[in-house]
Write a structure and sequence with these properties.
Length: 619
């Protein structure tokens, strides 16, 4: 074998051995990778099996929990009461029907029988489930009565007693008593045999009262503006009010007697004869397009004094009914003060004149439109002796128009202060010689303003007018509409009220009538501005204001303007203009006794002339 053959065999052997070693290494790597994959697979399999086991255990635990739920309360009796199903129990008389739920021993709904909603559906002050009345107290653990189902211990036609027993002895009792033919409900909260349950250092309890009041009237704006929350301090002249169509809240850190959740015509009032120690109150109005047609949510978080030793009773009084002045006043406690009758002067006039007159006519007349007409006539007749002189003075001033024009022509320069002072003095001399009071025209407005304001407060708040029809109006307490736009228009709303429109037209006619013959200084911008405001702006503004208010209010203003037009026309017919002019011209050049106002005017004029002379000397 030659050398080359040997080298070839050696190379073949080396290549074979190298290939074998390489192939062995590749097989080991593949085996290792496969082992790793097998390990991962086994881990994933174990994880799946573990997860499945955990789910099985969880389902088992859930089933066990459903079979035996975890206890929330230490007291076993409370625990059972928290898991029980509540029921509905009713008390009813000729005025209202109240439903109570045993879940919390609290009012569930309040339907007022004698009234209907605007759409003729049953009127609920609060609908089923829209109220919460709960007592919270510490009994070794903090509890709320609304979380527990009470046992009905007693029920009659007028009385309902519900109790929440404790395993350690004693019970909390809620007793409700509905008075016959009344909107009043007495509530007696009692802690019986609780001295071993309530710790001695616990001296207060919390009362939470929440009510969602639905919409009941035709116009949202008018209803919300007259809806609010009131609260009263014992001994005060009137309650404090918050809200009036706006969200509001108030914290009260002193003792208070009662609070009221007040809709425009109906209220839920809660009074504590022993007074609340403190509290926080809030009212939140729902939007006009609320799908549930709710008006407002009212909330009271109150704190009261717990009976000594954890045993005793605490009385409360509910009122679920109309905001009728006499009904509320007969109950006492100044409940009637929630009705907005105005301040002391306007309120006094409303209480002792408007309301008695309204009630008197209502005894004999069923038509409220006719009653308002008679009231307007009576008021106009009563104030006529006081306003006659003013109307007559206004008529005499119109007769002096030719003489006023002569004075205006004599003093034409409006920018000359000295000339203007002489013009004013000449005008006052003319009025004095004619026996005219230049301020007489203001007197009727000053006299009638309290009456107008009293009517402005009285009609929208008078439940007697609610849903009472007259002519084309179906509800005198709400706006009347002859045109409905179907959508809201800025300033005017979604309708046009015919009573408001007629009122604005008669106001325009009356202003036109009174201003047409009023003498005015030629070129006087102030006089022109006042004339424009009186004739045009005031009627337009009053239309926009009254378009969304009570139709009875617009109707009263309409009647008042019409009667004023007739009175003014009659007085002017009785005034002889020729005699007045003859009297004035006959007294021309003669001295006239000057009034104090004229004397002060002349003194001011002389002072001004003196100052002008001194300024000219300095120059």
């Amino acid at each position: 074998m030659d050398k080359n053959s040997i080298i070839g065999f050696v190379l073949i052997a080396v290549i074979f051995i190298g290939f074998s070693l390489f192939q062995s290494r590749q097989m080991r790597k593949a085996a290792e990778q496969q082992a790793q994959l097998d390990s991962i697979s086994r881990v994933e399999t174990l994880e799946r099996e573990l997860a499945e086991a955990e789910r099985t255990v969880a389902l088992a635990d859930s089933a066990m929990e459903q079979a035996a739920p975890r206890a929330i309360y230490k007291d076993s009796t409370l625990e059972a009461a928290s898991r029980a199903e509540g029921g509905i129990v009713a008390l009813e008389n000729s005025k209202i029907k109240l439903e109570f739920t045993t879940k919390g021993a609290q009012p569930w709904s309040a339907r007022i029988k004698d009234y209907k909603n605007y759409d003729s559906t049953e009127l609920y002050l609060f609908k089923p489930g829209a109220s919460e009345y709960s007592i919270s107290v510490y009994t070794g653990e903090y509890i709320r009565t609304s979380d527990f189902v009470f046992e009905v211990a007693e029920q009659t036609d007028s009385t309902l007693v519900m109790r929440l027993p404790f395993a350690g002895g004693g019970y909390i009792e809620q007793k409700y008593t509905l008075h016959a033919d009344s909107y009043r409900v007495d509530n007696l909260l009692s802690f019986v045999g609780m001295q071993d349950v309530i710790p001695r250092n616990v001296s207060v309890f919390d009362l939470d009262y929440n009510v969602m009041i639905p919409r009941m009237e035709k116009g949202y704006k008018n209803e919300s503006q007259y809806s609010k929350l009131d609260y009263y301090f014992e001994g005060d002249k009137k309650p404090v009010e918050i809200g009036r169509g706006r969200n509001a809240s108030r914290r009260v850190d002193s003792r208070l007697s009662w609070f009221a959740f007040q809709q425009q015509f109906f209220s839920a009032i809660l009074r504590a004869p022993q007074q609340f120690a403190s509290g926080e109150l809030a009212v939140n109005f729902m939007p006009q397009d609320d799908p549930e047609r709710n008006l407002m949510s009212c909330t009271a978080w109150m704190r009261g004094d717990l009976p000594a030793g954890g045993q005793g009773s605490i009385p409360f009084e509910f009122y679920f009914g109309p905001n009728h002045y006499r009904t509320l006043k007969d109950l006492g406690h100044k409940f009637e003060k929630i009705i907005p009758l105005g301040g002391w002067l306007v309120g006094w006039f409303t209480k002792y004149a408007i309301i008695p007159m309204f009630n008197f006519f209502h005894r004999f007349i069923s038509s409220f439109g006719l009653i308002i007409l008679l009231m307007t006539l009576v008021i106009k007749l009563v104030v006529f002796p006081l306003t006659y002189k003013s109307y007559a003075s206004s008529a005499k001033m119109s007769a002096l128009k030719p003489e006023i024009e002569k004075i205006n022509a004599k003093f034409p320069h409006q920018d000359n202060q000295q000339e203007m002072m002489k013009k004013q003095q000449a005008t006052m001399d003319l009025y004095k010689r004619a026996g005219v009071s230049p301020m007489g025209g203001c007197l009727p407005t000053l006299l009638t303003f309290p009456i107008l304001w009293a009517m402005f407060r009285f009609f929208p708040a008078s439940i007697e007018l609610r849903q009472q029809s007259f002519l084309w109006c179906h509800d005198l307490s709400a706006y009347d509409s002859i045109v409905d736009f179907g959508t809201r228009v800025p300033l005017i709303g979604d309708h046009i009220s015919l009573f408001a429109l007629l009122m604005a037209v008669t106001m325009w006619l009356y202003s036109k009538m009174t201003m047409a013959n009023q003498p005015a200084a030629a070129g006087d911008p102030n006089a022109a501005s006042m004339r424009f405001m009186s004739v045009w702006m005031m009627p337009i503004m009053m239309f926009f204001i009254c378009n969304n208010l009570s139709a009875a209010l617009s109707y009263y203003y309409l009647l008042s303007q019409l009667i004023s037009i007739v009175q003014t026309w009659a007085i002017r017919r009785s005034i002889n203009k020729d005699e007045i002019l003859a009297k004035v011209r006959a007294s021309a050049g003669k001295p006239v006794q000057k009034s104090k106002w004229q004397q002060r005017l002349e003194e001011a004029q002389k002072m001004q002339e003196k100052m002008q002379r001194e300024q000219q000397k300095r120059r």
